[in-house]
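Example record for the data management plan.
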Amino acid sequence: MSHTELQLDALNSQNLLVMQLYADRAAVASAVAKANAKTAAKAAKAGLDDDSDGESESEGEAESTAVAAPAAEFDGWLERIDQMAEFDAEQLTRLHGQLIAMGFLKFEISGRSVGLRYKISTRGKNALDRATAMAARLAAGDDSEDDGEEIEMDFADAA
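Corresponding structural encoding:
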């Protein structure tokens, strides 16, 4: 049995649910960060346009910097998912550990106020994309078995 087959055998529907929730949260956080950046840019531009009331240029620049500061770019890291309706706390902890051990999920310790933060790894994104595509093909009635070679390539590229 190849390394990839072992990885895929260990990746079950529970793992996929947790990874999908992280992927969904990341997509929302990224969209919010982009919207905030766009809003901050508009506010900064409006602040510079209002500079004609006699303010010095340096005051206007300071104001635009202060407005733009809260719009930090999303770095991909998310707070730990502590609750899911489908799993109790012990199951969720076990699933996090499995995903980290398989290389599908990364974590970092970010301090006392936040604690652990998580991010889906490149390998995890590839596996999630592949599983989603396979599920879509199965739902459409295409149950061909030619995905093994593509999956091997995905894992080789991600490793």
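Summary line stored alongside the record: The chain has six helices and three strands.
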